[in-house]
């Protein structure tokens, strides 16, 4: 049963390990590390792992380590990729709790103490998250008024995630119990674009999930180097990687869960509907801006994920749209109306996720 409870104060000074992987983010690194060292109420073990960055990030990391005994630096002499860099940093730190923080992201003030307090008070919780604000240049103001904690039994959290297929958690907002991280043996290289998502699924199979409500825990930087900034072009990879993460999870950590077949089916259906929704989105700006080949590939992916998608409502809408485009006609609903409707829907969903920590189950477009 999901519980929403009153927050409890932090007891003592738990040790929090923060691993900071870095590749070509030397110009962001000092701000990132400062956002960690300014955290109050916890003892810190911070390690920066530079993956042989050609921009001089390794030298920046070593300089930061030389100025504060809580910081260590590892500068690799050859590039091994982000998964091995993540895991090397996590293996090298020690503490009661652990955070993985990309060198281009930041922690919000008070983040670590708030997360640690929940993990202290609820030993059954293996992972806690809050909300990460996105930013490009200027930091938006962060909410600092913690209203409540939500404790999700792992299987209930999994059911919600399978029902919507999406990843509602950004890496910088997450703190894990160190023992949980050790049990999960780090990030999985089989899903390089969804390794964090698979980690969250596995954590939920090992224990409860905690959520901090009404407060912003981190800042997630959005820029051209992020993996998923392309509006549609990366959709097939993104959906495919989440599907692969689900399949690995259900074959390994989740194979003994009650009702596993239903959860697996719900995840496949949710992803198929997401693929069709994106395929329809590619036609929203009229025939001249349409991407028929991408829409076709997304439709094929939807049916591959769940054969029932071949006759679902979204597929029928996609076929009608394709026929209109072939006939040289524009969308039935004017693009301006579609854009406004989409903006309102996305804003409402954003507010829901910001408040509750989860997304709605798959809805009609």
Description:
It comes from Phytohabitans rumicis. It holds the Pfam family Glycos_transf_2. This is Glycosyl transferase. By secondary structure, the chain is of the alpha/beta class. Among the domains are: 15-104, Alpha-Beta Complex (Spore Coat Polysaccharide Biosynthesis Protein SpsA, Chain A), CATH 3.90.550; 259-355, no CATH class. 45% of the residues lie in helices and 17% in strands. It is built from twelve helices and twelve strands. The chain has helices at residues 26-37, 57-67, 82-92, 111-121, 154-164, 178-184, 195-206, 235-251, 260-281, 292-305, 313-326, 335-356, and strands at 3-5, 15-22, 43-50, 71-75, 97-100, 106-107, 125-129, 132-135, 144-152, 175-177, 208-215, 218-221. The strands form two sheets. The protein has a nine-stranded mixed beta sheet, with helices on both faces. Helix 1 (26-37) links the parallel strand 2 (15-22) and strand 3. Helix 9 (260-281) runs parallel beside helix 11 (313-326). The longest helix is centred in the last third of the chain and has 22 residues, at 260-281. The radius of gyration is 21 Å and the shape is globular. 43% of the residues are buried.
């Amino acid at each position: 049963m999901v519980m929403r409870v009153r927050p409890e104060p932090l007891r003592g000074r738990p040790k929090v390990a923060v691993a900071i992987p870095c590749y070509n983010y030397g110009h962001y690194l000092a701000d990132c590390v400062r956002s960690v060292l300014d955290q109050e109420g916890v003892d810190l073990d911070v390690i920066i792992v530079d993956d042989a960055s050609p921009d001089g990030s390794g030298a920046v990391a070593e300089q930061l380590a030389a100025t504060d005994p809580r910081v260590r630096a590892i500068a690799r002499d050859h590039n091994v990729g982000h998964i091995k860099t993540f895991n090397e940093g996590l293996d090298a730190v020690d503490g009661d709790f652990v955070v993985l923080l990309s060198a281009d992201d930041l922690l919000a003030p008070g983040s670590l103490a708030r997360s640690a307090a929940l993990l202290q008070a609820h030993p059954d919780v293996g992972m806690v998250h809050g909300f990460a604000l996105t930013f490009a240049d200027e930091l938006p103001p962060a909410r600092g008024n913690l209203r409540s904690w939500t404790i999700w039994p792992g299987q209930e959290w999994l059911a919600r995630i399978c029902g919507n297929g999406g990843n509602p958690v950004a890496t910088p907002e997450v703190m894990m119990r160190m023992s949980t991280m050790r049990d999960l043996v780090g990030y999985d290289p089989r899903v390089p674009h969804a390794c964090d998502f698979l980690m969250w699924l596995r954590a939920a199979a090992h224990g409860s999930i905690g959520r901090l409500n009404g407060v912003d825990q981190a800042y997630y930087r959005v820029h051209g180097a992020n993996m998923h900034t392309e509006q549609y072009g990366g959709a097939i990879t993104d959906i495919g990687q989440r599907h692969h993460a689900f399949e690995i999870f259900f074959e390994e950590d989740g194979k003994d869960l009650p009702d596993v077949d239903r959860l697996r089916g719900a995840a496949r259906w949710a992803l198929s509907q997401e693929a069709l929704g994106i395929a329809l989105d590619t036609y929203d700006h009229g025939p001249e801006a349409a991407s028929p080949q991408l829409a076709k590939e997304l439709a094929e992916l939807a049916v591959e994920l769940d054969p029932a998608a071949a006759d679902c409502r979204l597929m029928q809408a996609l076929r009608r749209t394709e026929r209109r485009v072939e006939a040289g006609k524009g969308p039935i609903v004017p693009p301006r109306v579609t854009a406004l409707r989409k903006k309102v829907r996305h804003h409402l969903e954003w507010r829901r996720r910001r408040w509750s920590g989860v997304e709605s189950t798959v809805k009609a477009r």
